[in-house]
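dumping this here so i dont lose it
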């Protein structure tokens, strides 16, 4: 059974940091490109960052560049999203995504990130 499980969300004050983690199971994690997406209330789901299967290439949304870092550890079937200098506009549910050749596409349940004072 394929499963992606996010963790690490929570409440943080503006300017703070959080690190999200996603662990995969039931599939060959190291074969999949991994992505982080988010959806804020009333808004569409948007890409935050992604990383290729081997970890050599990353891609960031404009709002994430310079503040967020995506990484992965294939030995532990995990991907991470380090988020710094958070602001209220970053409040959203963050989702982990695994994709292979645009055919296999898996999603986690999401983790809530709330940025407020």
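and the seq i came up w/
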């Amino acid at each position: 059974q394929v499963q992606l499980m996010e963790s690490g969300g929570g409440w943080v004050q503006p300017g703070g940091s959080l690190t999200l983690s996603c662990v995969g199971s039931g599939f060959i994690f190291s074969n999949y490109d991994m992505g982080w997406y988010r959806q804020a209330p009333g808004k569409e789901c948007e890409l935050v960052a992604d990383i290729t299967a081997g970890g050599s290439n990353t891609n960031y949304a404009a709002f994430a560049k310079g503040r967020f870092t995506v990484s992965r550890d294939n030995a532990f079937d995990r991907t991470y999203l380090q988020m710094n200098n958070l602001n209220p506009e970053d409040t959203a549910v963050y989702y982990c995504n695994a994709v292979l050749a645009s055919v296999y596409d898996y999603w986690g349940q999401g983790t809530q990130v709330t940025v407020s004072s």
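The mean pLDDT is 97.
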